[in-house]
Amino acid sequence: MAMDPKADKLIRRTAMVASITAAYFLLTADYGPQENALGPIKRGIESVESSVKNFIFGRGKETEGNHQTSSQPKKPEQDDKAKAK
User: Fold this and answer.
1) Contact residues for 59 (Cβ-Cβ < 8 A; gap 6+)
2) DSSP for residue 38
3) Contacts of 54 (CB under 8 A, 6+ apart)
4) CA 42/CA 64 separation, integer angstroms
């Protein structure tokens, strides 16, 4: 019995998305404090996640303090003037 092509396409895509989602949750699950075989894969996935988030939303305020955003170094006189006020 032949299936409607649109329904077949929908079922295939739904199954693919469900498989990818299940694999993602299994790979990123917390298996306890010990390092296991999935550790490098999990770190890779988390690295990609943070890269995509930084690309889409920009760097967060907490990461700006760790990275120098200005191309010019801060002059010491500016710090002294700010402290005097």
Assistant:
1) 67
2) T
3) 63
4) 25
Whole-angstrom distance, CA of residue 59 vs CA of residue 54 = 5
Burial class (CB in 10 A: 0-12, 13-18, 19+), 83: exposed
10-residue averages of pLDDT along the chain (85 residues):
85 95 84 78 89 87 50 51 52
Whole-number pLDDT of residue 32: 74
**Burial bucket for residue 38 (CB in 10 Å: 0-12, 13-18, 19+):** middle
As a whole number of angstroms, the distance between CA 31 and CA 38 comes to 9
